[in-house]
Task: inverse folding
C-alpha cells in the first residue's frame, strides 16, 4: 500500500492512497494548525473501527440477520506523555433489528477479531482491545448485551 501526503501550508496536509480519495489532515491552533481536517490518530481509530465494522456487517448479512441499523463506536485511551500512543481501546457494536441472533453476532465479531481485520490484528499487539456489543430492537431498547473475549491474548 502506498500513500502520499502533500503539504498545503501550516500543519495542513492532503493525503491520498490507492483508492484516490483525498483526506485532509490537520491539527488545532495550539500546535500550529487551523483545525481544518482530522488528526492522524483519528484516522488510526477510524481505520480500526471501519475495518471491523465492514467485517461484522458483511458476515451478518451473509448470515441473513435482520439488521436495520448498525453502528460501531470506538473509545481509545491515550498516554499522557509523548508520543501519546493508544494504551487501550473499547470497540462497541450496536446492532439494531428484530430477532438478531446473538450467536451470529458473536461469531461475526470473532471472525473479524481473529481472522479478517488486519487493523485489529496489528493494533491488538500494541494495546488491549475490548469488544462489547448491544442488540437493540427497532424501538431502540436494548434486548441483549455482552462482551466478546478474544481467544488469544491481545498484548
Result:
Amino acid at each position: 500500500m502506498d500513500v502520499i501526503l502533500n503539504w498545503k501550508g501550516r500543519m495542513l496536509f492532503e493525503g491520498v492512497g490507492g483508492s484516490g480519495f483525498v483526506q485532509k489532515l490537520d491539527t488545532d491552533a495550539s500546535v500550529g494548525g487551523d483545525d481544518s481536517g482530522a488528526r492522524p490518530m483519528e484516522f488510526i481509530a477510524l481505520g480500526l473501527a471501519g475495518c471491523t465494522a465492514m467485517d461484522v456487517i458483511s458476515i451478518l448479512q451473509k448470515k441473513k440477520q435482520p439488521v436495520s441499523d448498525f453502528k460501531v463506536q470506538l473509545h481509545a485511551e491515550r498516554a499522557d506523555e509523548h508520543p501519546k500512543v493508544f494504551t487501550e481501546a473499547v470497540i462497541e457494536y450496536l446492532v439494531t433489528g428484530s430477532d438478531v441472533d446473538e450467536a451470529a453476532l458473536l461469531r461475526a465479531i470473532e471472525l473479524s477479531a481473529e481472522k479478517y481485520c488486519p487493523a485489529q490484528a496489528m493494533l491488538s499487539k500494541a494495546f488491549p482491545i475490548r469488544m462489547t456489543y448491544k442488540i437493540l430492537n427497532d424501538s431502540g431498547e436494548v434486548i441483549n448485551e455482552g462482551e466478546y473475549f478474544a481467544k488469544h491474548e491481545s498484548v
In short: DSSP finds three helices and seven strands in the chain.
